[in-house]
Give the backbone structure.
Amino acid sequence: MDINTLREIAVVLGALAFLGVCWWAFSPKRKKRFEEDAMLPFADEEKSERAARLAGRKKDESSTEDTGVAERTDGPSAAKRKGQDEQ
């Protein structure tokens, strides 16, 4: 076998591999999964925004605890605590 025959075999195998990948990627059975996977970056963005908000709240809570002030102004329990502090 000479080098040209090996190159031809490699080209045919490469083309078959390419066609196999195309068939797998564009198969109708996998369309729903790929559409869901395409939305993953946006879902991660929503999670990171929620995590940032939660981290901000935790940071605010820890900074009030450091100063000795335990009063929070968000939520209905803040009014209850405020009333208890006045008694």
Remarks:
- The helical segments are 3-25, 31-38, 40-67, 76-86.
- The chain has a mean pLDDT of 77.
